[in-house]
Write a structure and sequence with these properties.
457 residues; eight-stranded parallel β-barrel; 47% helix; alpha/beta; globular; TIM Barrel
Length: 457
């Protein structure tokens, strides 16, 4: 079996000190703009150039261009919903770890989860990411499936994704059958020695079990999977190249890039023996990382959460991010509370803007806030999604569908953001080049005005 991560190759690439020429950098960027992805050698070349300041502006500009070619101007918004902070693993960086006596444990009942999802729906969210620690008692597959079905049945939430522990194929099939869209498993660190040090006890200590979890998910029928490396545990250059190698493995084996690449950076948490990141990642390095992910894996939704400060997240909108969370709580039951409970949270959030504040800001930058979930309804997932993006056809669907959900948002949820959202809608309707599609979009606007919801192409 071919190894997913060739550690020797990655170490050789990050040990190289030769400085690429401007010609080499620009040539690599032109290849990235073809939306076919670039390999580890070219990614490492751009990494060396970016760290040295060679063509850094051009790298950022190319990353933004690849994002626009792939998804247009849209920025997808979502919220996490933490089901439990109970866990049987001892991950040194996590507030949920088993031996943490400082965390205030809490697990949501089915009724609690419905209440939390309903609160998020009332603010305008259409998609949720359910997050659970690994606990046979509090986050078994049976409990997660029960909660997924209950949220669909008792709220208007349109798509639910899940971030959970690796599962056997039969359990994954049950999760998929419940209506889950994307299944996420983050490797945390791809460096095996660091992985072993950070995961002291529990099933998560098994590096290979975690590494092959996404293969199993796709074999079980998940078209879309999500990955991520927790930046700060080891040299970020190794983590980035290893994650891209993982993404390329999935593409070569299943014909689809990962649906999402999350870019989390280690943040403080109550009860962690790690007071600060062993390998700190600066804001400038973080921006380069986002750009490299976008250039190397063009069809992936590059996700930056509220772990990061508002100023940095705002900059990243122009560099390649296509998905962003808003108003997040990382403590189970947090949306029902007046304030974030740091002693019950997985980590401390930094950007506390509400969904409406994020919608208004995104609109003010010329981007298009999107609450769309249409791809999951019509089968634009997995290989189909990857091929649609690579042929630069996704914008045809993204633009009108994002406008339809923004139209809904303005009517049902917007207060101070209504004016700027309406300006964005009017401006973007004019950008629909297909006159038949434009006419159909305007017709659906009228249906929304008349009270219909969840319309899409």
């Amino acid at each position: 079996m071919k190894k997913i991560i060739n550690a020797d190759l990655i170490e050789k690439l990050i040990d190289r000190e030769d400085l690429p020429s401007k010609v080499e950098v620009l040539a690599a960027l032109e290849r990235a703009k073809e939306l076919k992805g670039i390999g580890l050698e070219e990614t490492a070349l751009l990494m060396r150039a970016g760290r040295a300041g060679v063509c850094l502006d051009e790298i950022y500009q190319a990353s933004g261009e690849v994002k626009r070619k792939s998804f247009g101007s849209r920025i997808v918004l979502f919220a996490p919903l933490y089901l439990t902070n109970d866990c049987i693993n001892n991950c040194l960086y996590c507030g949920f770890r088993k031996d943490n006596i400082e965390v205030d444990r809490n697990s949501l009942s089915v009724e609690d989860a419905i209440r939390e999802a309903s609160l998020l729906e009332k603010t305008g969210f259409n998609r949720l990411l359910l997050v659970a620690g690994e606990s046979p008692k509090s986050s078994s597959i049976e409990r997660i499936v029960e909660i997924v079905k209950a949220i669909y049945q008792n709220t208007g939430m349109r798509i639910i994704h899940v971030n959970a522990a690796p599962m056997p194929i039969d359990k994954l099939k049950a999760l998929k059958a419940s209506g889950v869209g994307v299944f996420q498993v983050f490797q945390e660190t791809y460096h095996e020695e660091t992985y072993d040090k950070m995961h002291t006890t529990g099933p998560k200590k098994d590096y290979r079990r975690r590494l092959y979890a996404l293969d199993k998910a796709m074999e079980a029928g998940f078209d879309d999977v999500g990955m991520g490396a927790l930046l700060g545990l080891y040299d970020w250059r190794y983590e980035v190249l290893a994650l891209i190698a993982h993404a390329r493995h999935l593409f070569e084996k299943f014909g689809a890039w990962p649906h999402t690449i999350s870019v989390p950076r280690l943040q403080p948490t109550v009860g962690s023996p790690i007071a600060s990141a062993p390998h700190p990642v600066s804001d400038e390095e973080f921006k380069l990382i986002v750009a490299l992910y976008r250039l190397a894996v063009p069809a992936a939704g590059v996700v930056v959460t509220t772990r990061e400060p508002a100023v940095l997240r705002d900059e990243l909108l122009h560099i390649g991010v296509s998905q962003i969370s808003a108003g997040s709580r990382t403590d189970p039951g947090g949306y029902s509370q007046d304030a974030e409970r740091f002693d019950a949270s997985q980590f401390k959030t930094s950007d506390h803007r509400s969904l409406e504040e994020m919608v208004a800001y995104i609109a003010s930058t010329g981007h298009l806030p999107s609450l769309c979930t249409s791809c999951y309804r019509v089968g634009r997932t997995g290989r189909s999604f990857t091929e649609t993006v690579s042929h630069q056809e996704m914008e045809r669907y993204c633009l009108p569908n994002a406008l339809l959900t923004l139209k809904e948002y303005v009517i049902d949820h917007a207060n101070g953001s209504a004016a700027i959202c309406n300006e964005v809608i009017e401006r973007n309707v004019s950008l629909i080049s297909d006159e038949k599609l434009k006419k159909a979009t305007l017709a659906k606007f009228k249906e929304i005005d008349a009270g219909k919801r969840d319309l899409y192409f």
